[in-house]
Design goal:
Layout: H1 6-35, H2 42-49, H3 53-64, H4 69-80, H5 82-89, H6 101-106, H7 110-118, H8 125-152, H9 162-179, H10 182-198, H11 201-223
Helix pairs in contact: 1-3, 1-8, 1-9, 2-8, 3-4, 7-8, 10-11
Family: Belongs to the AzlC family.
Keywords: Cell membrane, Membrane, Transmembrane, Transmembrane helix, Transport
Membrane topology: Multi-pass membrane protein
């Protein structure tokens, strides 16, 4: 018989790759937050209230530039618009999750979405909740450690933000190994490169995601005309 804490041990094993990216990146965020003149507690507070790595880094830059609330809101909305697509694809998955549903929606980061969309056991709301909670815990731990270190030590943090890119690369490789279908990745790469070459940087991400989703939907319609897949 499995021990009572085995579900959490299983969730811990699933989130270990995320932990290896979130903790270093969270440390980088905490260090930068303090080195830009903010109080140490602002970093963990943002990791609880905002919980979006890219948006938190962007917010630090916008605050340093003296941006208005309107400018901050528009910029973060455009950066996080990809989560609209994540949420739509999870509507069926989160149905029946009860009191856990608001947190599951709130905690749907890129990395959490990657795990929930590829692991069959995450169809259980309890498993999805444990994964979401642990992932935010890793990010909060990293930002707290970075904030404390940044307030006590002085060092050059240049390059630490690359942890986010490294984490996306690892998750993409794992996703390719799980799905074993090259088409979505080829489409995503082509749309990303096209947007990067043709559009300004501030519009590149949203345009690339929208184009990739459109192409994938058209490809799905071509492969299965007249078929509508029921929600999970």
């Amino acid at each position: 018989m499995s021990s009572p804490d085995s579900p959490w041990r299983h969730a811990l094993s699933l989130t270990t790759p995320v932990m290896l990216g979130y903790v270093p990146l969270g440390i980088a965020f905490g260090v930068l937050c303090v080195q830009m003149g903010h109080a140490w507690w602002l970093a963990p507070l943002m990791s609880v209230a905002i919980y979006s790595g890219a948006s938190q880094f962007l917010l630090l830059s916008l605050l340093a530039a003296g941006a208005s609330l309107t400018e901050i809101g528009v910029a973060i909305f455009l950066l996080s618009a990809r989560h609209l697509f994540y949420g739509l694809s999870m509507l069926g998955r989160f149905r029946g999750s009860g009191a856990r549903k608001p947190y599951l929606i709130y905690a749907l980061t890129d990395e959490t979405y990657s795990l929930l969309s590829t692991r069959p056991e995450t169809r259980d709301p309890a498993v999805a909740f444990r994964i979401s909670l642990l992932n935010q815990g890793w990010w909060l731990l990293g930002s707290l450690l970075g904030a404390v270190a940044g307030s006590l030590l002085s060092f050059d943090s240049t390059g630490m933000e690359f942890a986010l890119t490294a984490l996306f690369i690892v998750l993409t490789v794992e996703l390719m190994a799980t799905i074993r279908q090259p088409a979505p990745f080829v489409i995503g790469l082509a749309c990303g490169l096209g947007a990067l070459l043709l559009l300004p940087k501030q519009h590149m991400l949203l345009a690339a995601i929208g184009a990739a989703c459109l192409v994938l939907l058209l490809d799905y319609r071509r492969r299965a005309p007249g078929t509508v897949e029921a929600g999970p």
